Amino acid sequence: MSSPSADRGLWDEYLACATRSYERHGVGVALDVERVADGADTAVFYAAVDRAGQVVAGVRGQGPYLSADQSHALVEWEGNAARPDVAELIHDRLPAGVVEMKTAFVSADAQHPGALSALLSRTALPTMVFTGARYVMATAADHVLRRWESGGGRVAENIAPAAYPDERYRTRMMWWDRFSIMDDVTEDVWARITRETEVLTGRDLILAA
Predict the structure, then answer these.
(1) Which residues, at least 6 apart from 84, have a Cβ–Cβ distance to it below 8 Å?
(2) What pLDDT digit, counting tens, does each position of 135-189 carry?
């Protein structure tokens, strides 16, 4: 867990690995790497590194937002009848803090892709503690978000999926809520989330509540 300004080398490795992963799936346009490369929009990022020192998975968070217009979700739902509903969901949560997770990936050659995906799903709470935001949101293909439900995220079922970045995908919206995340995961996963959050942030969760 770091920030682009605090660890430029790791940030560059993370982006390079993410770019290879996205391009391998033919969705490099969704990454928009030229826009995010300077790290200015990224409050925090997570990089999973294997024993050889190679980045094999990661995700980044941008926010907390001041306006719903800052969310890339509005680009993804452009031309979709549900776009006003997407904007409203974000806008209504802004006073409590909204951070959007982007650029999530697991390398194709990673040894434990399922475990890494589950690890990424557990980054919501440390992001909340670090930024002070109550809400974390993400948009991704439906099958990806279903895996992330194990980490307490819940798909916004009332929002119609978007065909983004192209017609092959059903992109959905997911939310994590700091007030309910403990009830949205199993007892074992909650123990992992709290332990990882305290290690990553260096903060006692009782004092940080």
Answers:
(1) none
(2) 999 998 887 888 899 999 999 999 999 998 878 889 999 999 999 999 999 999 9
Which DSSP helix (H) or strand (E) runs through 121?
helix 113-121
Round to whole Å and give the CA distance between 13 and 38.
13
Cis upstream peptide for 165 (omega within 30°): yes
Burial classification of residue 197, based on how many CB atoms lie within 10 Å of its CB (0-12 exposed, 13-18 middle, 19 or more buried): buried
Give the HSE-up count for residue 58: Cα atoms under 13 Å, Cβ half-sphere. 29
What are the pLDDT digits (tens) for 182-209?
999 999 999 999 999 999 998 776 555 5
Torsion angle in degrees (nearest 10) through CA of 20, 24, 25, 27: 50
Distances (CA, A) of 8 to 2, 5, 178: 9, 6, 29
What are 171's two structure tokens?
A: 């992109």
